[in-house]
Amino acid sequence: MKIPPLHALMCFESAARLTSMKAAAEELCVTSSAVSQQIAKLENVTNTRLFIRSPRRLELTTEGRIYLRAIRPAFSQIAEATQRLTNDGKANKVTISCTSGFAIQWLLPRLPAFEKANPGVEVQISTTNRQVDLLSEGIDFAIRHGAGSYPGMESECLVNDKLLPVCSPRLIVPEHELSSPNDIAEYTLLHDEHRLDWSVWFRALSIANVNTDTGPVFVDSNGVIEAAIAGKGIALVRSALVQEELASGLLINPLKIPVDSPIAYYLVYEESAILQKISRRFRDWITTAANKYPVI
């Protein structure tokens, strides 16, 4: 089916949102009669009654309410993309969505360099584990942990270093030596939400018969790292996320046997995000910062 005329959709969305033909006409700078005609055209095209009309009120039908909810995100995306296009050079804010673990362990230690190079720019970080809708939620960039395939969006790999087991130096005691990968099975395994990481690590070393389904699961890497520092078990993390902890001795890498992972951290964004100069600068900065990190 063809897309209905855009003007008819605009009149419907405005009248439905404002529950008034007159208010919609004022918002769109046309007459009430023009709005009514456009809505009638849309009802004819869709062969569906969208409004219940009465002298005192305008009410959506059930089909009209469902249709409004379905098309509203498209109008939000158009508005957001247009704002980005017309606001080029004026914006002074970049909004990023990522997990709290990535924000604390990777992004925040590096962010002062961006802020110093771009004085007056506000960086807003929204920490969440859910997958956000970038345009409709007004978010410029998301950092996602996955295989890199995000249909309809741009993605650039940020962190793809190896997985390595880390723990508190206090955890290793004489009665539980840790001299080979098989010894790890004697300790509590700590997991983030990607519980499969430990099975990937053991499989890469051709070690079978280890139950990797045991041990606590944390919502993100920050929780699992804090648990490892507290001596609650052995965590399997990316080396980029524990640079400071390894350097300070809070954590150790007792076996020094990193393995590759099939997933990585990606910078994901709608192409329209970089219509704004400040967003382009942030994209260029964060990808350069990621490339500076030495892969272990």
What's the topology here?
Layout lengths: L5 H13 L2 H8 L3 H15 L4 E3 L4 E3 L1 H25 L6 E6 L1 H18 L4 E6 L13 E6 L7 E6 L3 E4 L22 E2 L6 H8 L16 H9 L4 E5 L4 H6 L15 E6 L7 H15 L5
Helix pairs in contact: 1-2, 1-3, 1-4, 2-3
Describe the structure.
With 296 residues, the protein is of the alpha/beta class. The protein has 3 domains: 6-87, Arc Repressor Mutant, subunit A, CATH 1.10.10.10; 93-159 and 264-292, D-Maltodextrin-Binding Protein, domain 2; 161-261, D-Maltodextrin-Binding Protein, domain 2 (3-Layer(aba) Sandwich). It contains 9 helices and 10 strands. It has helices at residues 6-18, 21-28, 32-46, 62-86, 100-117, 197-204, 221-229, 243-248, 277-291, and strands spanning 51-53, 58-60, 93-98, 122-127, 141-146, 154-159, 163-166, 189-190, 234-238, 264-269. A hairpin with a 4-residue loop joins β1 (51-53) and β2. The longest helix has 25 residues, at 62-86. The radius of gyration is 26 Å and the shape is elongated. Belongs to the LysR transcriptional regulatory family. Keywords: DNA-binding, Plasmid, Transcription, Transcription regulation. This is GcvA. GO terms for molecular function: DNA-binding transcription factor activity; sequence-specific DNA binding. InterPro entries: LysR-type_TF_proteobact-type, LysR_HTH_N, LysR_subst-bd, WH-like_DNA-bd_sf, WH_DNA-bd_sf.
